[in-house]
Amino acid sequence: MSALAAIIWRDVRLAFRAGGGALQAVAFFALVVVLFSLAVGPDIALMRKIAGPVLWTAALLATLISLDQIWRADREDGSLDIIVETSDALPLTAAAKAAAHWFSTGLPLIIATPILGVILNLPASAYVPVLMSLAIGTPGLSLIGAFASALAVSLPRANLLISIIVAPLYAPILIFGAGASIAGAAGAAQYAPNLMLLGAATLFAALFSPIASAAALRSNLD
Amino acid sequence: MASISELANPQRFEGLAQAVSPYAVGVAFITLVAGLYYALFNSPADYQQGESVRIMYVHVPAAWMAMFCYSSMAIASAVGFIWKHPLADVAAKETAPIGAGFTFLALFTGAFWGKPMWGAWWVWDARLTSVLILLFLYLGYMALWQAIPDKIRAARLAAILAIVGFVNVPIIKFSVDWWNSLHQPASILRADGPTIDGSMLTPLFLMIAAYMALFTAMLLQSMRNELVARRVARLDMAADAATSTLVETPSAASQS
Amino acid sequence: MNKKQKRMGMIVTVLAIAGLAVALTLTALSQSVAYFYTPSELQALAAPPASTIRLGGLVEDGSVNYSEANSASVSFTVTDGGASTIVSYEGILPDLFREGQGVVVQGSLDADGLLVADTVLAKHDENYMPKELADALKEQGRWQDGSD
Amino acid sequence: MVEPPFSLSARDLRASRGGRDIFEGVSFVLAPGEAILLRGANGAGKTTLLRAVAGLLRPAGGAVEFCRDTEEPTENAAIYCGVQNGLKAALSVRENLDFWVSLYGAEKKAANDAINRFELRGFIDRRAGALSTGQARRAGLARLVIAQCPVWLVDEPVAAMDRDGVARFIQLVVDHLGCGGSAIIASHDALDIPGARTMTMSAKAAAP
To answer: How far apart are CA B95 and CA B234, in angstroms?
Structure first.
């Protein structure tokens, strides 16, 4: 197995083992959705309207709580040194870590979305745009999150700091992702431009995040 | 004429700052008083907005400064990151709170203009949203500096964040052209010349000059404070720990 | 693969991603993300959207009618030159609201295609000038309408 | 088993943290087959020096060079084993070893070599989190065998090890040196490695 594949495979295994964060993220996702529908109450018309944005916000929050661990776990047990030492190109390694985070957080969220959509009375026409927007947008969340997590890797209890740093960087993805699901829920075929902008945001994240993460890690290892 | 690297020497900077500061404060005071006088009393009401146009003289320069400060911060960060220059790091760090202040002022005055003019304090359109994001970028940058005790590491990490966040600046600038925005497009920096009447440009430019001078004065002062604080911290550190070096110890090896 | 080829591969990948991102952005922007519809776009739709929409355009000259029974109730026509939509609204209009001015109206369409608005926002243009000058320009016939 | 002999040289190395110099003026040459025992009080900068040589930390000044024979400097040929073992607590020892095999691009049988050299067979399928400190250290040092790097940089290798484990580690180092490898070992324990030089990190004399 190549080094990058080994890193992804190891992180995914760890996430799904006892003590891993994958199920916690999905549980948190479901929790936010359920709490939201409890708060909104029986107004189904209102619920249908906000289901897409609620799913997006919940997915973003669930991603947020899992960011802290991306690099810190590796730093605490010393494996970050090994990963950095053996890396041919640190940006590629950072991209692999972000990919692993997506497989263990973003992908489970997407799989859970159809079920939670039922709870939220998500209109049938919105399932495709919501799922597509999550599929396009959550890799961006993982990439940007890996960068913010790399910035804070040397700090204890950095979850709040990571949230503050990541919030403005997540804003475009949330806007276009939720925008696509709103347009989809309204039955308009106009979610395509939102999905394109979402794709562009994720691609930009794919460009800067590995390089910036690598620079942040280097600065944090000193 | 002193070169950039000479000015970048902290002692020289101290001398320069001492010389420039009083002028910056003076210019800031004079232009602010004159600008506000023109803005509030000696300029015409707009043909559509009426007296509310006066908010613009506070709002537009603040919005410009918000972007100017962020750009300066990103450039200083890049200089500090690449050439490892502590003075650039300090400049970037101390620019952030000032920029955040201008951003907040722009958002605040914008809301006060938006309520009577548009009919809403706040709308989630591209320009307003991207400026709000700018404010959060400033806050995240400041939070990162604050969270990391080692100033050299903090400078490097904050610099990376500032450079990444710079993406937002062109988005702010062009948001009104790219999206159907409620916010009006550029009035001054445009290819076919300003669309603001001359009588209104006087207070506008006076206010811009005032903000620039204010920025200079505040930046110089806070940079001097930071440099003094760092010098004290360095003296503390030098007192409590020694630098070591590596020496050969011949005996141990020969025993075996 | 040697180092040089690897580097080339990296550069090509980066350029491809950047190019794709820019292409996506430009395509999306050329399709104008519908933060609001114009009356023509609304007319072109096969089925009128069921939920809340935003409509942008100019208030048609002479179309503003205040209800006699209730002074806070008003109806006006929003046009983009091609098509127009009638809007009814109850509430306080912003200062900048007037005939010929750009507005963004938020509400839902009723069965007759009338837009029942819950929010009316006035869009300001980039022109600033004193009232006297605007009047003088109008008198001299050099007035260019603020609308694009 | 080891690649062609490497020599390692450090010239006037300086490292600083938070604006303070931790050490400066550190120079040494480590020839193939040579070992340096690195000593020094806590906080003298032993770990920092090892990390700087390993390339994990950017030195503030000076340079580290790896040379194969007399050729041009080559890329970093060192492996660093820090105080932490780099084991994932939720994975079994074997899974950890397999991960390293992939990372270092080693052959599959390298893991078996490591298992034999460090007597890991008894707890090979146990979760790394359930190992005793000494067992975990042995599993962590197994990386040295897997990576097959010519230069070893090891920080406190035997701190929690029983006497048998220490002897095994020393034998491993001796074999490594015999194949033309080299090592820098920072340790407070007396390690009886034949022919090893001892170098000490100590406070620099006050500047004249």
So the answer is: 23
So where are chain C's domains?
1-33, 39-140
With contact defined as 3+ CB pairs under 8 Å, the chains touching C are A, B
User: Could you tell me if D23 lies within 8 Å of chain A, comparing CB atoms?
Assistant: no
Q: Which of A186, A196, A206 sits opposite C24 (nearest CB)?
A: A196
Longest dimension (CA), chain C: 83
* Domain around B135: 20-230
Residue with tokens 């204010």: B214
Residues of D in contact with B247 (CB under 8 A): 199-200, 202
Dig out the tokens for D81 from the structure: 């084993």
Specify the residue for token string 């023109």: B38
Question: Does residue B166 lie within any of the structural domains?
Answer: yes
**How many structural domains does chain B have?**
1
- B contact test, residue of A166, A219, A221, A222 with most B CBs within 10 A: A219
Among the partner-chain residues C95, C128, C131, the one whose CB lies closest to the CB of B117 is: C95
Chains D and B touch (3+ CB pairs under 8 A): yes
Q: Which amino acid is at A57?
A: T
Its ipTM equals 0.85
pLDDT in tens, chain D (208 residues): 445 567 888 889 998 887 778 888 899 988 888 899 999 888 888 999 999 999 888 888 888 888 776 555 556 678 999 889 999 999 999 999 999 999 988 888 888 888 988 888 989 999 999 999 989 999 999 999 998 888 999 999 888 788 888 888 999 999 999 888 899 999 888 888 888 888 888 887 654 4
Nearest to D127 by CA among A25, A13, A75, A103: A13
* Residue in this structure with the two tokens 């693969």, named with its chain if needed: C1
Report the sign of the C-alpha dihedral through residues D148, D150, D155, D160, in that order: positive
Residue of chain A whose Cα is closest to the Cα of D22 = A222
| Residue B42 to residues B28, B39, B45, B81, B212, Cα–Cα distance (Å) | 19, 6, 10, 47, 22
Question: Does the domain spanning C39-140 belong to CATH 2.40.50.140?
Answer: yes
- Contacts (Cβ under 8 Å, ≥6 apart) of B207: B31, B32, B35, B36, B39, B57, B58, B60, B61
Query: Is residue B186 domain-resident?
Result: yes
Residues of D with CB under 8 A from a CB of B: 16-28, 37, 39-40, 43-45, 49, 192-204
- Report the candidate in A33, A27, A181 with the shortest Cα–Cα distance to residue A119: A33
From A190's Cα to the closest Cα of chain B, the distance in A is 15
Q: Phi-psi region for residue B4, left (φ > 0), alpha (ψ -120 to 50) or beta?
A: alpha
- Global pTM reads 0.88
What are chain A's partners, defined as 3 or more CB pairs within 8 angstroms?
B, C, D
Backbone angles phi, psi at D120, to 5 degrees: -90, -5
CA distances from B103 to B44, B128, B132, B199 (A): 27, 11, 8, 26
- Asked if C50 is an interface residue toward chain A (Cβ–Cβ < 8 A), one would say yes
Give the contacts of D171 (CB within 8 A, at least 6 positions apart): none
Cβ B182–C125 below 8 Å, yes or no?
A: no
| CATH of residue B96 | 1.20.120
- Mapped onto helix, strand or coil, the DSSP state of residue B109 is helix
CB D177 within 8 A of CB D152: no
In a domain, B245, yes or no: no
Residue of B nearest to C123 (CA): B182
DSSP classification of residue D78: E
Distance of CA B138 to the CA centre of its chain: 9
Report whether D39 contacts B249 (CB < 8 A). yes
